[in-house]
Amino acid sequence: MAKSVTLYPLGVGDAFTARHFFVNCLINVDGREFFIDCPAYLGKMFHYNNENGEQQLELNRYRELFITHMHADHVGGLEELAYFQYYKTENPVKLYGPDWLLQDIWSHLRPALEPSVREGGGLANFDWFFDPVPIDHFHDFGDFKVSYTYTRHVPRTLAFKFDFGNFKLGYAPDTGFDHNLIAWLNECDLIIHDAWFGETEALGGNIRNLHTPIADLLTLPEDFQRKTLLCHYADTAYSDSTENPSEEIGAYRLLQQGKVYKLV
Question: Does domain 5-262 have CATH number 3.40.120.10?
Answer without folding.
Answer: no
